[in-house]
Amino acid sequence: MKLPSGASIPRMTPEEADRRRYLSHALLNRMHLTPAGDPVAYSLDGDGQTQYYYDPNRVVEAAPELWYRPAMETRETRTLENGTVVEKMNTRQAAARGYYTRERLNQMRYDVTAEPVAYNVRGDGSTILFYDKRAALRRPLPCACCGKEPRYKRKLCRACFERDLAVRRAQGDAYRAEPRFMDRSRVLFFDLELTGVYDHDEIISVSIMDANGEVRMDTLVKPLHKKKWNRTEKIHGITPAMVQDAPTLDELIPTLKEMFENADNLIAFGASTDYSHIKYIYETESEQEALHKKIRCAAIEFVRYQNEHFPDNTHAALVDAMAALGITWDGIPHSSIADTIACMKVWEALFPNYYTTPAPEAVAHGMTGIPYQLEGDSKLERAAHLAEKMNAASAAVSAETAAELLPDQEDDGYGDSYGDSYGDSEGEEPTGDNRDMEEVPACV
Ligand SMILES: [Zn+2]
Hints:
Helix content: 25-40%
CATH class of the largest domain: Alpha Beta
Strand order of the largest sheet: 6-7-10-11-8
Distance between the termini: 54 Å
Number of strands: 17
Radius of gyration: 33 Å
Shape: elongated
Number of helices: 17
Structural class: alpha+beta
Bound molecules: zinc ion
């Protein structure tokens, strides 16, 4: 016999089914069980009634409304035109097994594709047919805004998404264009290199510059506990030998504290990792909290910008921000100071009216504002393309070094691919538009 699911089951005698320890409906009902899958066999009794048998390993506890069901013992069935035998049951019993009428399934956005599996008779004598929801096809969800077209992105259809995007872009552009009246000498950009991404890892390099493009600190740091960091060494190129004669973080603390005290904002690309390490230059929580209030994350702002202007782009590492905003490297890419310069320029491009004064020539250098795409299918191809885009100062950098800067091709999530390119970086959740992806946007 062929089942609605397409499976074929053998006919056997009740004795044979019993020998195999198969369970009939009557037995299942007595044990308050219900099948978790198709029957595995059937028998025909003297009256031509079908008895189904179920595998005892594929049963689950029945819903309470099925526990006492006298009808089970004297089952009424009906043979459909195609020969399928269906059982009579009321709506509640049917629902407990996942059987519904065609109308109800349509309301639940399912299309009936299989034969009915049960029936009932109305008071007026007409027949109701039930269909198995598991054998029905789920229709795509409609747009959360117009309710008509199928969804494309952010629970919206293409047209509604485009309209919503235009509104968000306009809001984002207005937010970024707002004058902030910041003093260039009181806005600092910083980048740390670490022995790893965990709390117990240590800072081995600190680079800080102000929004005038003036380097305030660019030093290696000798860690107190860590002796080697093979994994991250490949990324930032800082070896244990290089930091042997460097100052310790303790020695830098007075300078750092003074610098931070005289700053209104401290900005980094992927600031949360950096903050979680640099905060320990302060001992009290209130001091750490005061520092936190000044921290801004360029990656979060870039992700918002990218969602509004390049919604199809998925990578959001520093190199991707530079490409999207038309910025080339100054210095050796991914050296701490080059990253800091790049971060400063990304911020300058994102917030053109952030400061009271326009960008000095040193800051505007290499900022064309003309976005370019990093091309290539493989990481090396993309890296080679990036190397091409670099200015003369960094042309010597090999494609292989640049490859370390690029997030993995396979990695399409913002969470991992922006900010530090450490493979196992936890990353922080961008607070831009990403966070409320699941919220239904207002209809515009
Ligand atoms: Zn729509």
